[in-house]
TrEMBL record:
Ranges that cross the membrane: 214-238
Alphabetized InterPro entries for the sequence: ThiF/MoeB/HesA (IPR045886), ThiF_NAD_FAD-bd (IPR000594), Ubiquitin-activating_enz (IPR035985)
Gene3D superfamilies: NAD(P)-binding Rossmann-like Domain (3.40.50.720)
KW Protease (keyword) present: no
Membrane among keywords: yes
Designated name of the protein: tRNA threonylcarbamoyladenosine dehydratase
Lineage of the species this protein comes from: Bacteria, Pseudomonadati, Bacteroidota, Flavobacteriia, Flavobacteriales
Ranges of residues in domain THIF-type NAD/FAD binding fold: 12-240
Species, as recorded: Chryseobacterium nepalense
Protein origin, superkingdom: Bacteria
Keywords for this protein: Membrane, Transmembrane, Transmembrane helix
């Protein structure tokens, strides 16, 4: 396969930048509305090694916001759908698929085996998210964490800041509170929106999969969270010595 598909990228970041992306090894955990777009942006930028993790299958309710979700993919494993797409973008991508929801022991195992340059935390449940953030922090692996994209409609309010600077986000508030107990107050980059959540869009659930409730979502907000997360990683890798 010729490398001309990356010609425009090379014009911008030069051969040296492209080489850094080709050699990089990135972990994306969660392939929903945020993670699926983030993984695609990484692949299209030329990141050469990626591990994608998600134990979920495509549900009809995912179609409004998730890249792998189509009427034709309902019931299929998100990891498989996303993997097929990423390899169609870059057939030379070294891709590892992990089709499971990682428990703490597996999280440790994956992080220890991977030698990752960067982790994208696109998990939308508090407990597994915290497990990942703490595990990454202990290993000094760089991580960008996606906070709550639900109940929000203004893309201009999305930004990347340190966890200590997040506000108007319930998920970030819970994460900050529980990280504090682990003596972690800062040092984790977060994608969040400072728009006030639309409380009328909240729905309670049965509490399965660590989720007791969720907010309504619109097509473009999770995607822009994924865009910001991917940009954080790509720009870091290109500038890395």
């Amino acid at each position: 396969m010729d490398k001309y598909w990356l010609e425009r990228t090379e014009l911008l970041i030069k051969e040296e930048g492209l080489e850094k992306l080709t050699k990089a090894n990135v972990l994306v955990i969660g392939l929903g509305g945020v993670g699926s777009f983030a993984a695609e942006f990484l692949a299209r930028a030329g990141v050469g090694n990626m591990t994608i993790v998600d134990g979920d299958t495509v549900d009809i309710t995912n179609i409004n916001r998730q890249l792998p979700a189509l009427h034709s993919t309902v019931g299929k494993h998100k990891v498989e759908v996303v993997a097929e797409r990423l390899l169609d973008i870059n057939p030379r991508l070294h891709l590892t698929k992990i089709n499971e929801f990682l428990n703490p022991e597996r999280m440790d195992q994956v992080l220890d085996e991977g030698k990752f340059d960067y982790i994208l935390d696109c998990i939308d449940s508090v407990t597994p998210k915290l497990t990942l953030l703490i595990a990454a922090r202990r290993r000094k692996i760089k991580v960008v964490s996606s906070m709550g994209a639900g109940g929000k409609t203004d893309p201009s309010k999305v930004m990347v800041r340190d966890i200590s600077k997040t506000h108007n986000c319930y998920l970030a508030k819970q994460v900050r509170k529980r990280l504090k107990k682990e003596k972690i107050n800062k040092g984790i980059r977060c994608v969040f929106s400072n728009e006030i959540q639309n409380e009328e869009s909240l729905k309670m659930t049965d509490g399965s999969n660590y989720k007791r409730s969720f907010y309504g979502t619109i097509s473009f907000i999770p995607a822009i969270f994924g865009l910001y997360a991917a940009a954080e990683v790509i720009n870091y890798l290109v500038k890395k010595d």
